[in-house]
Design goal:
Elements lengths: L3 H39 L4 E5 L3 H13 L11 E4 L7 H14 L5 E6 L8 H10 L2 E6 L11 E4 L8 H25 L11
Helix pairs in contact: 1-5, 2-5, 3-4
């Protein structure tokens, strides 16, 4: 029988391993995502942020981080939260489609948080974003091998056996990191976004 200490130790070690592997393996993709978002904003575009299920919390936090100041005293950045529901909630998914139809313009970027891209009902939203001329960046909680997602998809390696709470925690952290890097590229190292677009 496990003790409470066993549960805490296992949870802590699993979370630390998940985080370490993610940042080791996905750092170049996180940089590309932030560079692309910064380039979009520098060209007068906006960031539309979408999150499904628990990814909705990540999406709200990322949109707020772009609007608010993080570590720098800088102007608000144009970010709009697109409502999305839970998996299978077609009514809310339709609301997301309608919002995208109304607000999206070619050159904008859609930043999505999908805890499990294999089970998502957001395919119509992603397809519309691509058709509208948006660039898509998707942070996924589960590995996306074999899935066809538009644009840049960043998943969490080895997340399949991890508790959902740790996966969501890492998605939240990754979203905040990308927003911090957007600030870096826009206000501290603008020459880095004058390179070739990663998409």
């Amino acid at each position: 029988m496990q003790t409470a200490q066993d549960i805490i130790t296992t949870y802590s070690r699993t979370g630390a391993r998940l985080r370490e592997v993610f940042f080791q393996e996905r750092t170049p993709l996180l940089q590309k995502a932030a560079q692309h978002m910064a380039r979009c904003l520098a060209r007068g575009g906006k960031i539309l942020v979408l999150g499904e299920d628990a990814g909705g919390i990540c999406a709200r936090a990322a949109a707020q981080a772009l609007l608010d100041r993080l570590d720098l005293d800088r102007p608000a950045l144009p970010a709009i939260l697109i409502p999305a529901g839970s998996t299978g909630d077609q009514t809310t998914d339709r609301a997301a489609l309608r919002q995208l139809e109304a607000l999206a313009r070619p050159g904008d970027t859609l930043l999505s948080f999908l805890p499990d891209a294999a089970q998502t009902t957001m395919e119509p939203v992603l397809a519309l974003a691509q058709e509208t001329g948006l660039s898509c960046i998707t942070l996924c909680g589960r590995p996306v091998a074999g899935l066809s997602l538009p644009g840049l998809a960043i998943d969490i390696p080895d997340a399949s056996g991890a508790p959902a709470s740790l996966v969501h925690e890492l998605l939240f952290t990754a979203g905040h990191l990308v927003c911090r890097l957007v600030d870096y590229y826009l206000f501290e190292n603008v020459t880095a976004i004058q390179t070739v677009d990663p998409q």
